[in-house]
Design goal:
Blueprint (H helix, E strand, L loop, with lengths): L2 H20 L1 H4 L8 H17 L10 H8 L10 H18 L6 H14 L5 H17 L5 H4 L13 H5 L7 H11 L1
Helix pairs in contact: 1-3, 3-5, 4-6, 5-7
Length: 186
């Protein structure tokens, strides 16, 4: 490989690593901080995920956006932070392909975050294999998400953002009802 190209790539990787580590300024208020080693491992994971999904990424990577989107999650703590970010990054690239790049990065991240918090309750496997699988299948079939079509709720004049309930194939239990019943038992 050309030494000049290697130098440019090394500088680009250093800048990307610095961008990821800068996210600590925001995430530390949530008790989440990445070490330099964890950030480097995430960068290696990014490279592997891009290769596995046969994607090329120009400019900044998606990891800072993932960090900023998910840092306030009630299901992420310091112990699982790096692992969750690694998995979210891989899921993002996989479903960027599976949705045929029909969604912007922000639209996909918004959908992922909403499902992770409200439908999956932090269950990464359910996010990957159920919610995003169904959503991507619908996108490939021509479905336009509410984010894409910018539908408005004519009764409350607010954005409608419950795409998944239209695609869900099973009845989900309501967390608040479950918790209330559980509290009543004890």
């Amino acid at each position: 490989m050309d030494p000049m190209f290697e130098l440019v790539m090394a500088e680009q990787q250093k800048k990307e690593l610095d961008r990821v580590l800068e996210c600590n300024n925001k995430t530390e208020q949530f008790g989440l901080v990445l070490s330099r080693e964890e950030a480097q491992n995430l960068m290696i994971g990014r490279k592997n995920s891009l290769n596995d999904n046969q994607r090329v990424e120009f400019g900044t990577g998606i990891l800072p956006k993932i960090i900023n989107s998910f840092c306030d999650s009630q299901y992420i703590n310091q112990d699982n932070y790096s692992d969750v970010l690694s998995e979210l990054q891989d899921i993002f690239y996989t479903y960027k392909n599976e949705t045929l790049d029909e969604l912007t990065d922000d639209e996909l991240l918004d959908f992922m975050k909403k499902q992770y918090e409200e439908i999956c309750f932090g269950d990464m496997e359910y996010l990957r294999n159920t919610c995003l699988e169904r959503f991507s299948r619908a996108i490939r079939s021509g479905y336009h998400s509410q984010m894409q079509s910018r539908l408005r709720d004519e009764y409350s004049l607010r954005d409608i953002d419950d795409d998944y309930s239209k695609l869900s194939e099973e009845t989900r239990w309501e967390y608040e009802v479950y918790k209330m019943k559980l509290d009543e038992m004890y």
